Amino acid sequence: MSRFIKYLTIIIVIFLIIITILNFQYIGILFIDEIYGKYPTLNKLSAFGDSFGSINTFISSFALIGVIWSVIMQKKELQLQREELRKTTEELHSQKEEFEQQNKTARYQRFDNAFFQLLNNQREKIQDLHISFTNLHEVFVSEDEKYDGRDVFKNILFHRLPNNRLSTNLISLVNAKQAWEGYYSYYYASISTLYFKGLLHLLEYISSSSIIDESDKEFYANIVRTSLSKNELITLFLHAQIYDVDRFKHVIYRFSFFQDIKSYNILDENLYPLYDEQAYTSTVTSTQYK
């Protein structure tokens, strides 16, 4: 397109030069003839006046050519402007996407820092767990029987349980729950409550976070869930029936936190109705806990 315009410009300029030379040559001849002629005739004067018509034609042609040329150049300039605008728009869009990605990465980094700090705090709390019995408290316990760390949860579950299995013992679910609550509250609540409060805070931090996407919350909750031993998870199953019940149930249902608990074969199946089915399977969905 630019080569065509270049050649067209050269042709027009040459044409204008030729027309200009011819017009001035013709005018000059008439002017000399009128000056040096004896008597200017009417025909000659008329011809001399008509010679200016060619100049007007030339000027009109030149103006028309200028208009055409201006239109061509404006069209070309408009095309260049549109192309530049398109490139600028694409660049701005690319910069926006890059900025959004950087912003998302920064937000996730802040979330990760807080999340793993809370998770490490939970691990430290496990190490700080200690429990001991003497024959002053339990006549069937040997003196200075001690449990540390994760063994505390094992002791909570199996210290008094026949056949290492939590059972309703053929009594009603309500009575079984009351019996467990009395036993747990008396011996273990003061030891494990702080640990479970930290766990609740960690799960609520994931659930209520506006930093990460909804689809990623399940991922972080699974990290927490898989970090718990089966004894911790079973103890949580019972602890959440006594303390911070509504708050615990919210996050338990939100993340189907007990989806593996039935495979441990520790709980009597008659205890499962303590929680809705959503606690055991992620296929049961509800907007109530989102």
- Runs in which pLDDT lies below 50 for 5 or more consecutive residues are 135-143
What's the pLDDT, averaged over the residues? Answer: 75
Q: Provide a count of the helices.
A: 8
Q: What is the end-to-end distance?
A: 61 Å
| Strand line-up of the largest beta sheet | 1-2
What radius of gyration results from the CA coordinates? 47 Å
Tally of strands: 2
The H/E string reads HHEEHHHHHH
Task: Tell me the β content.
Answer: under 5%
Shape: rod-shaped
Helix content: 55-70%
**Classification by helices and strands:** mainly alpha
What's the main sheet like?
A: 2 strands, antiparallel
Number of domains: 2
Structure description:
The chain has a two-stranded antiparallel ribbon. The chain starts with a helix and ends in a 36-residue tail after the last helix. The chain is built from 8 helices and 2 strands, in the order ααββαααααα. It is 68% helix and 3% strand. It has 2 domains: 2-100; 128-289, no CATH class. 13% of the residues are buried. The longest helix has 86 residues, at 42-127. The chain is mainly α and 290 residues long.
